[in-house]
Amino acid sequence: MKVRLISAVVFMLITVPAVLLGNIYFDIYLGVITVLGLKELFDLYKKNNGFDNNLIYILSYISSLIILLSDEELLSSICLSFLLLFIPLVFYENNNYNYDNAVNIFGNTLLVSIPFYVLRVVRINSLYVIIYLFLITILTDTFAFIIGKNFGKNKLIERVSPNKTIEGSIGGSIIGTIIPSLFYLFMVDPGESIFLILLFTLILSIIGQLGDLVFSSIKRYLKIKDFSNIMPGHGGILDRFDSIILVSIAYTIIKTLFL
After folding, report:
1. Long-range contacts, 148-152 (Cβ 8 Å, 24+)
2. Three-class SS of residue 94?
3. What is the pLDDT of residues 123-160, one digit of tens each?
4. Cys-Cys crosslink for 245: which of 24, 41, 115, 251, Cβ 3.0 to 4.6 Å?
């Protein structure tokens, strides 16, 4: 418990200033997070498939950073990443780098870099919105754990995450909806419809829990407990950012279509 608490404090001491300061500080923070998250996937891929080509991995890291920092040129950056990871197929024998390797690495590159690109865009546009998104995921996760531990009796999806309960999920979403919605209405857009914000925040809270379950299902498929041990007691980068990854994508869709 002590190690877990120390890890959480260190994580917050790094994350909170980066979010508040924004600009190059947040860019550097996201760049490190993106590369570390991608490395977690590649370490597992290397372990499970035996693929060990440092040049290709480096090209993927470069591609992920190009996507992260692409601003309005996201599509061009994705296309460049495609070229960087598929053109090398010409120069390698199949046993060193093949189509399956390229698809897996390209997919992992997009899986990690695009959500963090979205977070970067959100932070550029508004400090308060990114705080709102983090509030949704943190409060939902925290109170789902607390309520589930104390009152949970019915399993949510036991085969994916044995410890999660329906009671915890509902309780987490209630708290993870009400408080962030109030924050949004006071700090982001006081003129927005209360009903709409409550509805969209509830949707984001649910999607945050689905994000957690998606990455839990990936870990169960890979037969691992955590993606890494970079944060003792908490796991890896992807273990900590699993909810916000889907929430950031979903918020962008909602913002574009409805807000």
Report:
1. 148/172
2. coil
3. 999 999 999 999 999 999 999 989 988 888 888 887 87
4. 115
Q: What global pTM score does this model have?
A: 0.90
pLDDT in tens, 63-91: 999 999 998 789 999 999 999 999 999 99
**Residue 164, number of CB atoms within 10 A of its CB:** 22
Of 125, 202, 217, nearest in space to 164 by CA: 217
Residue 21 CA to residue 5 CA, distance in Å, equals: 24
| Secondary structure (H, E, C), the chain | CHHHHHHHHHHHHHHHHHHHHCHHHHHHHHHHHHHHHHHHHHHHHHHHHCCCCHHHHHHHHHHHHHHHCCCCCHHHHHHHHHHHHHHHHHHCCCCCCCHHHHHHHHHHHHHHHHHHHHHHHHHHHCHHHHHHHHHHHHHHHHHHHHHHHHHCCCECCCCCCCCCEHHHHHHHHHHHHHHHHHHHHHHHCCCCCHHHHHHHHHHHHHHHHHHHHHHHHHHHHHCCCCCCCCECCCECHHHHHHHHHHHHHHHHHHHHHCC
User: Which segments within the chain are labelled E, that is strand?
Assistant: none
Phi-psi region of 88 (alpha: psi -120 to 50; beta: other; left: phi over 0): alpha
Give the span between the Cα atoms of 158 and 143, in whole angstroms.
19
